[in-house]
Amino acid sequence: MNKVISKISVKDICYRYPSEEKNALKSISAEFETGVFYAIVGKNGSGKSTLARMLNALLIPERGIVTSCGMETANHLNHPEIREKVSMIFEDPETQLVCQTVEEEIAFGPENIGLPVEEIKKRVKDALRLTGIEHLAKRPTGSLSIGEKQLVAIAGALAMNPSFIVSDESTSMLDFESRKRIIELYIKLVQNGIGIIHITHFLEEASLSDCVLVLDDGYIAESGKPIEVLGNPETLMKFSLDPLPVTDVVLELRNLGYEAPHGILSTGELLEWLKC
């Protein structure tokens, strides 16, 4: 799919909702590239969803510049193309589905931009394959589980051939197995050249990303590789985030005198070390 590196650039953006007294975002700067899995974490009200909506021009900054795939979001003429290149997946999949069947739902976006019938069929087939839901193609969307509906929403986004998918807590309403399946899909899409920007409350999901950003009070408070950001429980607690249970265990082992290594973010890694 997308092999050419494309970027979203965010430079010194600020934003305040009309009903609020303080800014939701305060001087945010960041850069996102295709082929990379980003996780954005932070407590409620830290600005995560506001930042997500900036990336595909659902919101426009009051100050600063967002450039998505070479197009400034402040120019409303760019919005249709930006929203093709930067797809949004929201928390509740039911708010995103509008068609009767899965195939119709996935074809909806390409039809709306006037693609030829054969191209639409190809994109629907490719999106079904990538998301692993070929068996659902003829099913009514109303008959699906919530996890299946979220996969259909992602397939619909993929049919637009995006450079980026911005996931605004797309796993928060799902059970563990459905969450696992979505994250595995995001990792697969990154390998296909798509940029994933995943907002999540689950640090276990963030630990599987390539880069973690912590938002706090409208600022990017920390950013870096998962081990750099998530490996220090004290840092996370400073931002009102509950550390990964495994990092608490590693910290306690060190306090007891064991030379537990840095870089352990999963139970499997801890068990491997304990076997040594």
Number of helices: 11
CATH fourth-tier homologous superfamily: P-loop containing nucleotide triphosphate hydrolases
Radius of gyration: 20 Å
CATH fold category name: Rossmann fold
Order of helices and strands: EEEHEEHEHHHEHEHEEHHHH
Tell me what portion of residues adopts beta-strand conformation: 15-25%
What can you tell me about this protein's structure?
By secondary structure, this protein is of the alpha/beta class. 38% of the residues lie in helices and 21% in strands. The chain contains eleven helices and ten strands. The strands form two sheets. It has a six-stranded mixed sheet with strand order 6-7-8-3-9-10, sandwiched between helices. The chain has a four-stranded antiparallel sheet with strand order 2-1-4-5, covered by helices on one side.
Summarize the helices and strands and which ones pair or pack.
Elements: E1 7-15, E2 25-33, E3 37-41, H1 48-55, E4 63-68, E5 71-72, H2 79-85, E6 86-89, H3 102-112, H4 117-131, H5 146-158, E7 164-168, H6 176-191, E8 195-199, H7 203-206, E9 211-216, E10 219-224, H8 226-230, H9 233-238, H10 245-255, H11 267-275
Parallel strand pairs: 3-8, 3-9, 6-7, 7-8
Antiparallel strand pairs: 1-2, 1-4, 4-5, 9-10
Helix pairs in contact: 3-4, 3-5, 4-5
